[in-house]
Amino acid sequence: MQHAPAPDRPAWFASFDARTPVEMIATFTDALTDPTADPADNWDPQEPLLKAGWIPAYNHHRLASPDGTVRVEADETTRAWWVDTALRDFRTLLWQAHFSEHTPPHLITAFTTALTDPRPVPRTASPSSLPTRSPGFITRSHREVAATQVAGALEERIRSLAARRSGPPTTSTHPPQRPQAERHRQR
């Protein structure tokens, strides 16, 4: 995901590999599109991790989850953020995310908050639906879910996100004009 530069904001990007849990990416994009979020607030992406008992690993810019399977690091030189999830020996990477230097801190904080959420995430019974290279490493439980609940989940999410909008969508009856430089080309 890339964000183009603006007069008041440099370009930034966030990347998630193919096995990053969809809930993590959704939390990030929800924060990105939240009209009530104030990026100017003093956000600290490490705060939710510290509150959840994560411990410094090697230096104060790297934190490790209590079970040792996730590391979050703010690179002192590049000011980028890295999230690595692996088996305890960290030889087998499960998934990772990367946030560039200018990624707004409130977006990274939303992501790190989601990392500490203890609630289970729904998956189908198929092992291929698990976003991990080591399905035996996670705790699974079985629960019957009514088809109506599954069918309504997407609709409820859409309603919930639409309700956040601060006002009605803007529409224009005029087509967008080209910038002045393009309208008066010289030959």
Describe this structure in words.
The chain is of the alpha+beta class and 187 residues long. The chain has a domain at 18-33 and 42-120 and 130-137. 26% of the residues lie in helices and 18% in strands. It is built from 5 helices and 7 strands; from the N terminus they run ββααβββββααα. The chain has helices at residues 22-33, 47-51, 105-115, 147-163, 180-183, and strands at residues 2-3, 12-16, 55-57, 59-64, 70-74, 81-86, 93-99. Strands 1-2-7-6-5-4-3 form a 7-stranded antiparallel β-sheet, with no helix packed on it. Strand 3 (55-57) and strand 4 (59-64) form a beta hairpin. Helix 1 (22-33) packs antiparallel against helix 3. It is globular and about 50 Å long. It starts with a strand and ends with a helix.
Secondary structure category: alpha+beta
**Number of DSSP E strands:** 7
Fraction of residues in β-strands? 15-25%
List low-confidence stretches.
Answer: 170-187
List descriptors:
alpha+beta; 187 residues; seven-stranded antiparallel sheet; 7 strands
In brief:
The chain is an alpha+beta fold and 187 residues long. Helix content is 26%, strand content 18%.
Question: How is this fold's topology laid out?
Answer:
Blueprint: E1 2-3, E2 12-16, H1 22-33, H2 47-51, E3 55-57, E4 59-64, E5 70-74, E6 81-86, E7 93-99, H3 105-115, H4 147-163, H5 180-183
Helix pairs in contact: 1-3
